[in-house]
Hints:
The chain has 214 residues and is α/β, with parallel strands linked by helices. It has one domain: P-loop containing nucleotide triphosphate hydrolases (Rossmann fold). The protein is 53% helix and 11% strand. It has a 5-stranded parallel beta sheet with strand order 2-3-1-4-5, with helices on both faces. Helix 3 runs parallel beside helix 5 (90-105). The longest helix is centred in the last third of the chain and has 17 residues, at 154-170. The two termini are 18 Å apart. The relative contact order is 0.21. It binds 2'-deoxycytidine-5'-monophosphate. Residues 11, 33-34, 37-38, 83-84, 87, 113-115, 168 line the site of 2'-deoxycytidine-5'-monophosphate.
Amino acid sequence: xxxxxxxxxxxAAGKGTLAxxxxxxxDLPHLDTGLLYRATGRRVLDAGGDPSxxxxxxxxxxxxxxxxxxxxxxxxxEADAAAAAVASIPAVRAALLDFQRNFGAERGAVxxxxxxxxxxxxxxxxxxxxxxxxxxxxxxRWLELRGRGIAADLDEVTDQVRLRDKQDRDRAAAPLVxxxxxxxxxxxxxxxxxxxARALALLAQRLGTAGRSQ
Length: 214
Ligand code: DC
C-alpha cells in the first residue's frame, strides 16, 4: 500500500496544522475529513433541514460537490453543531467512506479526523493520535478566534471544546478513540514546530529509517 498517514484526535489538538506540514514534507495529498461533515451539515442548513434527521443528512452527504469544501461559512458555532449532528449518523459516515478511502488509495495521503486509524484506514502505514489538555486546546481556539477578530470568552470557548469532546467520544457511530496501534502525541506543551519535529521522529521510528522523506 502507498504511504497513508492517519491523524486522529479531538478538536483543536493541532491535527490540521500537523497534517498539512507532514503532507508537504512527504509530498502527499492532504484531506481534512472534518470538512466533509462540515459541508454536509451546511448543505442541510441551507435547505432549511434538520442536521440530525438521518435521511436528509445522508442525501446531503451523497450530493456533496468539490465547491462545497471551499465555502467560507464552514466554521463557527452553527456549522460546528450541524457537523457534529450529521457526524453521529451512521448513514452519513457510510456515504463518505468511499470518498475518503479512494482519496488515500491511489498515491497515498495524509488524512486527519476522528476515525481515520480505526475505520477509514485500519491498515494505515502509521497512525498518530494527537491530543492536548482541554485547557490548552480551549486557549488555542480562543487565540485563533481573536486572530480572526472575533471577541470570545476563554472559559466559554474551553467549555465548548469539552462539549465537542464529549459528543465525539460518546456517539455510537465511530466514536473518537485511539486505534490500538496508534502512537500518542500530546501537544499540550508543544508549539507547531515542536509538534512537527516530534511527529517526524515518531514516524521515522515507526516506518524505519527516515520514512520516505524525499
Ligand atoms: O475536525 P473538525 O472539527 O472539522 O470536525 C467537524 C465535525 O466532524 C466534528 O464534530 C467531528 C466530526 N468528524 C468525524 O466525526 N469524523 C471525522 N473523520 C472528522 C470529523
